[in-house]
Design a protein that fits this description.
The chain is mainly beta. 4% of the residues lie in helices and 51% in strands. The chain is built from three helices and 29 strands. The strands form seven sheets. A five-stranded mixed β-sheet has the order 12-13-14-15-19. Strands 21, 22, 23, 24 and 25 form a five-stranded antiparallel β-sheet that branches. It has a four-stranded antiparallel β-sheet with strand order 4-5-6-7, with no helix packed on it. A hairpin with a 3-residue loop joins strand 21 and strand 22. The protein is globular. It starts with a strand and ends in a 7-residue tail after the last helix.
């Protein structure tokens, strides 16, 4: 398991024990994101405009990618042999670049006109690897067919969420979620035919904070054994709620089966959460510099409780960041 932090280091942690296996300092000049790429390979990106594929066992860089203008990279995605990066708005362009990892000397294609602001999220379709989703602070979530080089023809569908995108992704073959920086949440159904613009949300909850009695939403994450859950935090109450997202006749949040992580990361914000491969353990990463492991268990009354299995202290330096960087800066996996 890998983690990035504000001291521009990549740390490798053993998931079962939470022991620190190694640290790569100065991985970027302003590291911004980290994604898993194939077995034991991590893909990092930074404000220096570089993408690096790092072997988490040897701590060596397998390869490095960059565009000539090197705009700051804010998001990445990987699927099979494809690697995508999303850039900060630079010279009126917010570029999405796609590489083929089998021949990465030159980018495979680039889309530069579909977004008018920073590209904060990228995600490949789970069963159709040529389909790429992008989200931006311009409020749009786009779907592209990356087998098509021409940008106008490649753009399949546009969802106008109406506010700056923090997270977006696929929930199923045809369902897409969008979560904004002001915690507004919607689910959209992609049309079976191409080039349909601005569909109405199939499920729109709006601002989740008053509904879930939380102060921020971390993200939505999925595993095969647990399905999709949403992490909703409250730093003033020192807690994080893990809430299942389910679909019967329609989508809904199953608040009755909320799993609360007591104390969470104290008064510090939780930046990331993910499941172990078997889905039995939840890992959280917070601004307190800790990575924690949690496991659910049933008490004598039948209520599900979360057990704190321990934590890893990555001992990062705290630094000040601009409001613009605050939500897009760290994305451990």
């Amino acid at each position: 398991m890998g983690s990035i932090s504000s001291d521009d280091s990549l740390r490798v942690i053993d998931p079962p024990t939470l022991e620190l296996r190694g640290t790569i300092g100065g991985v970027h000049d302003g590291v911004t994101c980290l994604s898993g790429f194939r077995d034991r390979l991590g893909l990092t990106a930074g404000r220096d405009g570089l993408l690096k594929c790092i072997d988490l066992r040897t701590k060596n860089t397998a390869f490095e990618l960059s565009e000539e203008k090197k705009p700051a990279i804010l998001s990445t995605a990987c699927r099979e042999h494809l690697i995508a990066s999303g850039a900060e708005l630079t010279n009126s362009q917010a570029a999405i670049t796609v590489w083929d990892a089998r021949a990465f000397k030159r980018s495979l294609l680039q889309y530069v006109e579909s977004h008018s602001d920073d590209v904060t999220e990228l995600c490949f379709h789970t069963s159709r690897p040529s389909i790429l989703l992008s989200g931006s602070t311009d409020g749009l979530v786009n779907l592209y067919d990356t087998t098509v080089a021409d940008e106008d023809d490649a753009l399949i569908q546009v969802f106008n969420h109406g506010s700056s995108i923090a997270h977006a992704g696929f929930l199923s073959d045809h369902d897409v979620f969008a979560l904004s920086h002001d915690e507004a949440f919607s689910i959209y159904e992609s049309n079976r035919s191409d080039h349909v613009e601005a569909p109405i949300p199939a499920y729109a909850l709006g601002d989740l904070r008053p509904q879930l009695q939380c102060e921020y939403v971390v993200d939505l994450v999925s595993s095969e054994s647990t399905g999709t859950v949403l992490g909703a935090g409250s730093h003033s109450l020192h807690q994080l709620d893990v809430i299942p997202l389910h679909r019967g006749s329609e989508w809904g949040l199953d608040t009755a089966n909320t799993l609360r992580l007591p104390s969470a990361h104290g008064e510090e914000v939780v930046r990331s959460l993910c499941f172990s491969r078997d889905g039995n353990t939840i890992f959280t990463a917070g601004e307190d510099g800790l990575i924690k492991a949690w496991r659910s268990s049933e008490d004598p009354t039948g209520t599900m409780k979360a057990e704190d299995l321990g934590s890893a202290d990555i001992k990062r330096k705290k630094q000040k960041h601009s409001d613009r960087d605050e939500r897009a800066r760290f994305k451990p996996y």
